[in-house]
Amino acid sequence: NTYCVSSGNNSQEWIEYFSLGGISRSSGADAGGYVHTGSTINLSIGSTGNAGQISAGYSNREKDEYYAVYIDFNRNGSFDDAGEKVAGQSSITSTGNYSFTVNIPNTATAGVTGLRVVMLRQPTTVTPCQSGNRGETEDYFVNLINGSFQGFGSSPVITMNDQRFESSDLTVGPNPSAGIYKVYFTNDFNPVRYDVLRIDGTPVKHGNNVSVKQCVIDITSFPSGIYMLRLTDQKGATRSVKLIKNQ
Q1: In angstroms, rounded to a whole number, what is the distance separating the alpha carbons of residues 37 and 201?
Q2: How far apart are the C-alpha atoms of 100 and 2, rounded to whole Å?
Q3: Rounded to an integer, what distance in angstroms lies between the CA atom of residue 159 and that of residue 200?
Q4: Listed residue (184, 210, 230) closest to 23, CA to CA
Q5: 3 state DSSP class of 31
Q6: Distances (CA, A) of 24 to 39, 105, 157, 210, 223
Q7: Do 37 and 25 contact (CB within 8 A), yes or no?
C-alpha cells in the first residue's frame, strides 16, 4: 500500500533508536525527516506485551517529544482506523531509551503490512499523517504471523540421545532437562522470536531473541512434561522441537 505523507523537520530532533520484534535500528537524522527502512518486524497474532524501545537524538539541547506507533491491521493503506495506534502518545524528555509494549489482536490476519513510528516535539498532537512539525517519521514492514497451534506434525528433530535433540538448523541441549535449554542455530536460520507451548497447543511463554548464535529457554517454573518450542525468523519461517522437562 501507498501510505499518506508523513515527515518532520529533523534539524534539531529525530528518532535516534527504535526496536521492536527483533529489529533494532540506530540512526541519525534521516534526509527529509522520513525514511522507509525496508526492514520487517515479526509479530505473532494474539501476542501481548511485545517489548519495544525508542529514543530521541538532538543536535542541541534536549526537548520534550511525543511518539506513537501504528500498524495497518486491515491493510487498507491507512493508519487512522480504530485500534491501529498500538503505542503512544507517550513523552520523551531526554536521550535515554523509553520502553513501550505492543499487543496484536486475535482478529488480525497473517501477512505483511505497514508499521509507522512518528515522533514530534510537544505540544503537537501525534497523528500518522502530518508534515512540517519538528520531528521524524520511520516506516517499516510488519509480518503478522499466525500464532495458532498446528500440532507437532513432522518434527524437524531427526536424531535423539539422552542429552539433546538435533536437526539441520538447530541443536537443543540438554534435553530432557530440569527446565533450562540452550538452543544453538545453524544454516543461516536466525530466529527473532520464540514461543513455548504445552502439548495441547496452549502458549505458556514467548519472547524476542536478539542473538544470531543461540538463546536460552527457561521453563523451570513449569510442571514436568512435554512442551513444544517454536522458533520464528524474520521472514516468518519456523522450526519446532519438543522439550522434555523431567523435574
Answers
A1: 35
A2: 27
A3: 24
A4: 210
A5: helix
A6: 10, 23, 31, 9, 34
A7: yes
Task: For residue 73, give the C-alpha cell.
Answer: 491491521
Taking the CA atoms of residue 38, residue 80, residue 103 and residue 14 in that order, the dihedral angle to the nearest 10 degrees is 50
CB atoms within 10 A of CB 222: 15
Whole-prediction pTM: 0.63
pLDDT averaged over consecutive 10-residue blocks of the chain (247 residues)? 91 96 90 93 87 94 94 95 92 90 90 94 91 95 72 41 56 90 85 82 78 86 88 79 87
The three cell numbers of residue 6 are 508523513
User: What are the backbone dihedrals phi and psi of residue 177, each rounded to the nearest 5 degrees, phi first?
Assistant: -155, 180
Q: Are 21 and 58 in contact (CB under 8 A)?
A: no
| Nearest one of 239, 243, 21 to 144, comparing CA atoms | 21
Nearest residue to 32 via CA among 2, 1, 11: 11
